[in-house]
């Protein structure tokens, strides 16, 4: 069905629903690359005007990717909870925006609504929101998950400690883990991207991280971010796997590009949960996503990159993950060209994930060929902190020496704790305290060389196998 | 896994080392920016400036122009062609990878005129592409090509093509336009903070637009910071050239074929570490 709108004497036409969604999206290079961006700034506002008047039920009646062609669409449609949707079922997208912003829509109402929302609905409403709206609404969403730590509690911000090494040297990895622990990072997960996709390497790293965790009785979870099929092999081999990781995207074809489908993800989730290693909860999956993934696999079905990204969250939520994060600036300037686009995308992704009921975090990051720098990352991390982001990725000195991109540093975490007053997960916070690593007012200490906590950790890192 | 893991522990247990020495020992195990210290919560000034310098160098490498004359002057005497992708400038190139894979309007004629008049095809063509680091190309392309030419006596080698605003797949229309059986694209890899001048080399048999990445073989990390030397890289290139032309393919099939040949005790001349 075609849509049209008359604005200021001009008529704007859009051939179908996905064209309206694409044109309503704030400008980004990936939609330009795909030939989906609005033809002008005025056409963008026209598309938003049309979108505002569409009933939310439009998205239940009209799929942006055909039901017959795509198992992600089938998952979205078949798992839609009509009863949960009822409180907003009479609203237009514009009316839904106002409803979300209203003070009556509190954490309990939003949590109850989540199963009634589809990715297309939340993507649509995000396109009618400014950054502050995305922050205000996301901040009201409360999504709590748990394994050995509890993620998503009010006033808390967790971190993934990412100790990557260009040749997976366990001692080098251990040195980075130690560095991060000394800043109080790692309560979401200590998670390494291995340079090699070899199972033996992954087993060695899994074992080393687990030994380190047990030696210091650190209440956190570890993860080697390797393909789910590798993870299942590693579990069969008896290695101590906490979380199983996978990159996911918003269409069946894009997921096939990642070598997964929903059945395989279900099998991997069962394998992870069967180990029963969580102490305070059983959320055992970890997913990463990012705008542009579907387009780069030529699997976007003519849908704009932000809407396809939101569909990835429908995939993630089917498997009750502990953690989900968008790797927002990693994919490069052909998808998000500069700090402005990366910032907007990070807040959109966080908003959409939270509204759909996910424990949403973010890798606040950029590559060297994007028009972005650490100042842009400072801005986005502070905005995400305000938005109640569940966790952020941190690496030594912002420099990932294996993946060759820049993320947040452990220092940035300390700044967020001071500026926003956000604290570590309670289990991990208690551990930091036991280790003598916090001051009475809750700051992470700058440790002296001979401080027992430092000596113990350094010695262990020196001996990591 | 590095053998260093079994060498004497970097930090002697219980040793009463000063802070700086302890971190210095751990730093030998990783290039990561560990043990940077703190100014309040923030990064101290010195490591902040170090980081900014590394980022500036990486960005300079991304935005530098390909100095064709300098590279040509470093090459042995051999005909040279220049082509440009359909991306007119760096800004467009970075945002439109599709344009970096297509030739501009003038290139077809340039290539047609250079194709062999005798109807025979070239065995291979070297294509020097700026990619994401013209600096990598400036530093390593000429030495690698020189070392390759020394190893590839007797092959019909097309004019060396200098390609600006180019992605790897620009080698497909170039190779097809010249009628080359194999394309060898030397291209600047995306700069990181630690290495901003790393060269990658991609080989594609029967190049033509639409070739998939799985149909190419890649030799990456040619650089002077612990990467492959030009000689090492040329050894691998020459091996791939001979095998690709003999077997009539590149990509996953060639790599698997090589592994099988090795398992069956077949020959794998001068191919270190594949």
UniProtKB/TrEMBL annotation, chain A:
GO terms for cellular component: cytosol; ethanolamine ammonia-lyase complex; ethanolamine degradation polyhedral organelle. It comes from the Bacteria. It is found in: Bacterial microcompartment. Substrate binds at residues 160-162, 193, 288, 363. Pathway: Amine and polyamine degradation; ethanolamine degradation. Its main location: other. It catalyses: ethanolamine = acetaldehyde + NH4(+). Its cofactor is adenosylcob(III)alamin. Binds between the large and small subunits. Signal peptide: none annotated. GO terms for molecular function: cobalamin binding; ethanolamine ammonia-lyase activity. Its EC number is 4.3.1.7. Adenosylcob(III)alamin binds at residues 194, 246, 296, 402. Keywords: Bacterial microcompartment, Cobalamin, Cobalt, Lyase. Belongs to the EutB family. The basic unit is a heterodimer which dimerizes to form tetramers. The heterotetramers trimerize; 6 large subunits form a core ring with 6 small subunits projecting outwards. This is Ethanolamine ammonia-lyase large subunit.
TrEMBL record, chain B:
Pathway: Amine and polyamine degradation; ethanolamine degradation. This is Ethanolamine ammonia-lyase small subunit. Binds between the large and small subunits. It is an enzyme of class 4 (lyase). PANTHER family: ETHANOLAMINE AMMONIA-LYASE LIGHT CHAIN, ETHANOLAMINE AMMONIA-LYASE SMALL SUBUNIT. It comes from Methylobacterium terricola. Its cofactor is adenosylcob(III)alamin. The basic unit is a heterodimer which dimerizes to form tetramers. The heterotetramers trimerize; 6 large subunits form a core ring with 6 small subunits projecting outwards.
């Amino acid at each position: 069905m075609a849509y049209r709108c008359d604005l200021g004497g001009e008529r704007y036409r859009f051939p179908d629903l996905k064209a309206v969604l694409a044109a309503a999206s704030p400008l980004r290079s990936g939609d330009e690359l795909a030939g989906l961006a609005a033809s002008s700034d005025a056409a963008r506002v026209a598309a938003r005007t049309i979108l505002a008047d569409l009933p939310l039920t439009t998205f239940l009646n009209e799929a942006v990717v055909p039901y017959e062609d795509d198992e992600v669409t089938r998952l979205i449609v078949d798992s839609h909870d009509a009863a949960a949707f009822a409180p907003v079922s009479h609203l237009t997208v514009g009316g839904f925006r106002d409803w979300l912003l209203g003070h009556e829509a509190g954490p309990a109402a939003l949590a109850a609504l989540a199963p009634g929302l589809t990715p297309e609905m939340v993507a649509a409403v995000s396109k009618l929101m400014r950054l502050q709206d995305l922050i205000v609404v996301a901040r009201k969403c409360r999504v709590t998950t748990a394994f050995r730590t509890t993620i998503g509690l009010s006033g808390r911000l967790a971190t993934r400690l990412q100790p990557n090494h260009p040749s997976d040297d366990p001692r080098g990895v251990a040195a980075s883990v130690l560095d991060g622990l000394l800043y109080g990072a790692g309560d979401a997960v200590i998670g390494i991207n291995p340079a090699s996709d070899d199972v033996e390497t992954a087993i060695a790293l899994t074992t080393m991280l687990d030994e380190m965790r047990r030696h210091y009785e650190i209440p956190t979870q570890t993860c080697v971010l390797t393909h789910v099929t590798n993870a299942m092999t590693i579990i069969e081999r008896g290695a101590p796997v906490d979380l199983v990781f996978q990159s996911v995207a918003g269409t069946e074809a894009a997921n096939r590009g990642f070598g997964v489908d929903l059945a395989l993800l279900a099998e991997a989730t069962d394998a992870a949960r069967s180990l029963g290693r969580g102490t305070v909860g059983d959320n055992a999956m970890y997913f990463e996503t990012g705008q542009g993934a579907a387009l780069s696999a030529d699997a976007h079905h003519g849908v704009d990159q932000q809407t396809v990204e939101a569909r990835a969250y429908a995939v993630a939520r089917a498997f009750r993950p502990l953690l989900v994060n968008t790797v927002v600036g990693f994919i490069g300037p052909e998808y998000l060209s500069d700090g402005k686009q990366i910032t907007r995308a990070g807040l959109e992704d966080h908003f959409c994930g939270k509204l759909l009921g996910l424990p949403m975090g973010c890798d606040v990051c950029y590559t060297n060929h994007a028009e972005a720098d650490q100042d842009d990352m400072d801005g986005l991390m502070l905005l995400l902190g305000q938005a109640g982001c569940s966790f952020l990725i941190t690496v030594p000195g912002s420099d990932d020496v294996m993946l060759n991109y820049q993320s947040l540093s452990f220092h940035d975490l300390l700044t967020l704790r001071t500026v926003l007053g956000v604290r570590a997960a309670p289990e991990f916070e208690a551990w930091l305290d036991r280790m003598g690593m916090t001051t009475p007012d809750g700051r992470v200490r700058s440790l002296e060389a001979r401080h027992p906590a430092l000596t113990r950790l350094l010695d262990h890192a020196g001996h990591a196998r | 896994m590095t053998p260093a893991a079994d060498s004497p522990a970097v930090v002697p247990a219980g040793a009463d080392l000063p802070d700086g020495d302890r971190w210095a020992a751990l730093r030998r195990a990783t290039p990561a920016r560990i043990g940077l210290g703190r100014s309040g919560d923030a990064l101290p000034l010195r490591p902040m400036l170090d980081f900014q310098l590394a980022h500036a160098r990486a960005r300079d490498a991304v935005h530098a122009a390909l100095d064709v004359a300098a590279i040509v002057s470093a090459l042995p005497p051999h005909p040279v062609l220049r082509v440009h992708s359909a991306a007119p400038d760096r800004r467009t190139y970075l945002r439109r990878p599709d344009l970096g894979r297509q030739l501009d309007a003038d290139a077809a004629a340039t290539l047609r005129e250079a194709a062999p008049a005798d109807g025979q095809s070239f065995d291979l063509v070297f294509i020097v592409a700026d990619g994401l680091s013209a600096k990598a190309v400036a530093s390593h392309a000429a030495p690698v090509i020189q070392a390759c030419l020394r190893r590839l006596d007797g092959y019909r080698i097309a004019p060396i093509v200098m390609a600006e605003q180019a992605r790897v797949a620009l080698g497909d229309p170039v190779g097809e336009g010249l009628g080359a059986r194999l394309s060898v694209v030397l291209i600047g890899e995306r700069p990181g903070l630690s290495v901003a001048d790393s060269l990658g080399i991609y080989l594609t048999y029967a190049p033509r637009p639409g070739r998939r990445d799985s149909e190419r073989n890649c030799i990456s990390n040619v650089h002077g910071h612990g990467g492959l030397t030009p000689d090492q890289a040329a050894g691998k290139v020459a091996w791939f050239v001979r095998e690709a032309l003999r077997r009539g393919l590149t990509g996953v099939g060639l790599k698997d074929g090589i592994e099988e040949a090795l398992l069956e005790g077949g020959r794998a001349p001068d191919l270190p570490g594949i």
